[in-house]
Amino acid sequence: QVQLVESGGGLVQAGGSLRLSCAASKSIFRTIFSINTMGWFRQAPGNQRELVASITSAGSTNYADSVRGRFTISRDATKATVSLQMNSLKPEDTAVYYCNTFTRSIAWGQGTQVTVSS
Questions:
Q1: What pLDDT does 1 receive?
Q2: CA dihedral 102, 105, 22, 49 (to 10 degrees)
Q3: With the CA atoms of 82, 88, 91 and 55 taken in that order, what torsion angle do they form, in degrees rounded to the nearest 10?
Q4: Mean pLDDT calculated for residue range 84-113
């Protein structure tokens, strides 16, 4: 079964940084990574899953207002990985973070927990 594998989460103090990474477990989906707009999503307890950043195959990026200027999404098409650099973290960034295509077309992975303490 194809899985998206997210990593890099952890516990950090407010103002700190983390870098998340995402890869696909199957080679066939590396092609999907390379041609689709990819996104990072997050879900906090009691909230719906929300898109926080996206990047097109051409490298154009877009961010939710809540993270713009603090988060940076990037992709490596040859490695089929998508990363999210998170700086100046806030307690409200605490959530499980997931990656997927922009249209959420791949089965969700387990996500990676990000906890920001105040």
A1: 61
A2: 70
A3: -30
A4: 95
Give yes or no for a contact between 12 and 20, defined as CB atoms under 8 angstroms apart.
no
Mean pLDDT of the chain: 92
Do the Cβ atoms of 1 and 97 come closer than 8 Å?
A: no
Could you tell me where the beta strands, DSSP code E, fall in the chain?
4-7, 10-13, 18-24, 38-43, 50-55, 61-63, 71-76, 81-86, 95-101, 112-117
Q: Which candidate, 57, 60, 64, 105, places its Cα nearest to that of 86?
A: 64
- Give the separation between CA 41 and CA 102, rounded to whole angstroms: 9
